[in-house]
Design brief:
By secondary structure, this protein is α/β, with parallel strands linked by helices. It has one domain: TIM Barrel (Alpha-Beta Barrel). Helix content is about 35%, strand content about 20%. The chain is built from eleven helices and twelve strands. The strands form two sheets. An eight-stranded parallel β-barrel has the order 1-4-5-8-9-10-11-12, surrounded by nine helices. A two-stranded antiparallel sheet has the order 6-7. Helix 4 runs parallel beside helix 5 and helix 8 runs parallel beside helix 10. The structure holds ligand PBG.
Length: about 325
């Protein structure tokens, strides 16, 4: 790209001089349309539990869910994402609770689809909320077995779709899962169910608070490096996305967000598919705690989100979704 112009005939400060011209030439904007709100679920009644490592975020029992859903609807959030905290006694080696048609997520989907129709419902396809060991897949001979896991993921995605999930979002990083899920959905006449692939999910320590929230942290033995991506790699992310598009993904996700802006940007430039990013729990905690202890002011929330947009995200999964949408007109 050739940069034209020369000082003093060209002065870039001229177009920064007032709010109206800055608004006029802004290249990116953040609106409610860009936001996906994650919601944590818990069993029981009358519960709105604090999550220690995520100040301001709660786990809701189903009878308390309307408080946050009403807000999502009022502020025109286009999609919510559900994450269950499954009790210890419902977890086992193979995560079989994932296939219980009356599990927490399924009950939540049914409840939400009956009462709300203004936003989409997205559900995670992975076994970690349900396994006693906190991994996303089936362990066979001490290893996470890809193909055995696929059999369960296929059923889990079908179950979620059949009770009303609009967007199934495999976050497990097994090879081949998008194709298998797409085929299974089509066979069951669920051709309109969308697939958001967590195509580029790095093995990141920024997921720590989330594992707290869904109750997997203490259980997780080892790390997820045999299935989630190596943080040192970039070209591998293009291979992941290419494969998932071929297999039938409708959108792809990069995760975490801010430490991987380069990846978001490259995926956006290399593929013509909507790219989402996930500002994950650790990013949220870092920002919220810095605001709480007054090291940073709250404008960093907007700045962090606009950076994800500028990098190329069509939409962002963020725990700040409701907070920011209430303040957005200020910027
Ligand atoms: C589970 C899953 C994780 C997140 C979303 N789905 C955690 C993990 O892979 O350990 C992380 C989200 C966050 O940190 O906010 N498959």
């Amino acid at each position: 790209m050739k940069i034209l112009g020369k000082f003093p005939s060209t002065r870039l400060r001229r177009v920064r001089n007032s709010d109206w011209v800055r608004r006029l030439i802004s290249e990116n904007n953040l609106s409610a349309d860009d936001l996906i709100l994650p919601i944590f679920l818990t069993e029981g009644k009358n519960k709105k539990e604090k999550i220690k490592t995520m100040p301001g975020i709660y786990r809701y029992s189903l009878d308390k869910l309307s408080s946050i859903l009403d807000e999502a609807e009022k502020f025109k959030i286009p999609m919510i994402a559900l994450f269950p905290n499954t009790s210890n006694h419902q977890r086992d080696h193979n995560g079989s609770e994932a296939l219980n048609e009356n599990n927490l997520v399924c009950r939540a989907i049914k409840f939400i689809k009956k009462k709300y129709n203004k936003f989409g419902v997205m559900t995670d396809v992975a076994l970690d909320p349900y396994t006693s060991h906190g991994h996303d897949g089936i362990i066979l001979n001490g290893k996470i077995d890809n193909d055995e896991t696929l059999k369960i993921l296929e059923k889990q995605a079908l179950l979620q779709a059949s009770v009303g999930s609009d967007v199934v979002a495999p976050s497990d990083m097994m090879d081949g899962r998008i194709g298998i899920i797409r085929k299974a959905l089509d066979k069951k006449k669920l051709k309109d169910t969308q697939i958001l692939s967590y195509a580029v999910k790095y093995a990141s320590s920024f997921y720590g608070p989330f594992r707290d929230a869904i109750g997997s942290k203490q259980k997780l033995k080892g790390d997820k490096k045999t299935y989630q991506m190596d943080m040192r790699n970039y070209t591998e992310s293009l291979r992941e996305v290419g494969l998932d598009i071929k297999e039938g993904a409708d959108f792809v996700m990069v995760k975490p967000g801010m430490p991987y802006l380069d990846i978001i940007s490259q995926i956006k430039q290399n593929f013509k598919i909507p790219v989402f990013s996930y500002q994950v729990s650790g990013e949220y905690s870092m920002i919220v705690n810095s605001i709480k202890n007054k090291s940073l002011n709250e404008n960093v929330v907007y700045e962090s989100l606009i950076s994800l947009k500028r990098a190329g995200s069509n939409a962002i999964v963020t725990y700040f979704a409701l907070d920011i949408v209430k303040k957005i007109n200020k910027y």
